[in-house]
Amino acid sequence: MTKVLITRKIPDRFVNDLEQFAEVEMWPHDLTPMPRDQFLASIKDATACITTLSETIDETVLSQAPHLKVIVNMAVGYDNINLELTRTHNVVVTNTPHVLSETTAELGFSLMLAVARRIVEAEKYVKDGKWQSWGPYLFAGKDVFQSKVGIFGMGEIGQAFARRLQGFHSDVLYHNRSRNLKAEKTLGVHYTDFDTLISESDFVICTAPLTQETERRFNKDVFKKMKRDAIFINIGRGPIVVEKDLVEALKQGEILGAGLDVVTEEPIDMNHEFLKLDNVVVVPHIGSATVVTRNRMIQCCVENVKAILNDKPPKTPVEL
Ligand code: GLV
Q: D-isomer specific 2-hydroxyacid dehydrogenase catalytic domain spans which residues (predicted)?
């Protein structure tokens, strides 16, 4: 019998749908990842596997899964999957593009506003009972309105972010592997080289995927070149940033603050320096976390599994 392995608990209605076509084995927890040894044992006889970013898909997995036809990643990013190996093993990979772009941009925007207006610090101040009176510069922050914003990565998420900035009358620069003429035309964003982007922007927003080219791209030299009152937002992937360099830049006042949806080691170590800094807001990788969007992502996964099981082309293959 065909088996679909699902590595995280998803709502029954999606499981019931898949059960029309296959036997389904689902890890019954939504906040604890499937232990690696159990994952390796369970994928042995699976034809399709719905994974999350918690599962690393490498040779150990693929060599033990002779029946596997597809890895259906419940994310737009797929840096947890070795694509060269999936190609060698003839395993299709799918992701969940399009459905999460607006939601992820919105989280990035929330982080930008939260850091700029010191919302988290200010709220803690109130709850700690420290609010005594109004003060002219009490929690004085920084305007996004009419600022210069540099977006690193002008894919769908970068464009959704830029669209939101139109209401803030910002001047939007971007840097991307290739120019996005459509975005330039429709959103009025300006292409620049990376150095101009980081040195001129009041807000630097990283929306890029993790690749060999982007890994460790934001390092000591980059933070030194940023404006001293720049705010850095990362909604891409943690390893795009050299975290100790960011910590140093924040401590030395080389930049003003940071908002991070992603970090290198997730979940974050509770002793991480980020958590000791008032000018850093960290959230637990919730870029696409709205109920509607998560439903759409799971639906997209289900459709990809069904297509493969029915020998049809997948809906959203990762193009190799
Ligand atoms: C989340 O980070 C995703 O890639 O969808």
A: 4-318
DSSP letter for 27, please.
-
User: Which residue has the least CA distance to atom 3 on ligand 1?
Assistant: 75
SS3 83: helix
**Which tokens hold the place of 13?**
């209605």
Mean pLDDT by 10 residues, the chain (320 residues): 96 98 97 98 98 98 98 98 98 98 98 98 98 98 98 98 98 97 98 98 99 98 98 98 98 98 98 98 98 98 98 94
What superfamily would CATH give domain 100-282? NAD(P)-binding Rossmann-like Domain (3.40.50.720)
Q: Which one of 2.60.120.10, 3.30.450.20, 3.40.50.720, 3.90.76.10 gives the CATH number of domain 3-95+291-310?
A: 3.40.50.720
Check for a shared fold between 3-95+291-310 and 100-282: yes
Alpha-carbon span 94 to 91, nearest angstrom: 10
Give the residue numbers marked as catalytic: 237, 266, 285
CB contact set of 1 (below 8 Å; sequence gap of 6+): 22, 23
Domain boundaries, the chain: 3-95+291-310, 100-282
Looking at residue 21, its pLDDT comes to 93
Please report the atom of ligand 1 found closest to the CA of residue 77: 4
Which one, of 53, 97, 103, 113, lies nearest residue 79 by Cα?
Answer: 53
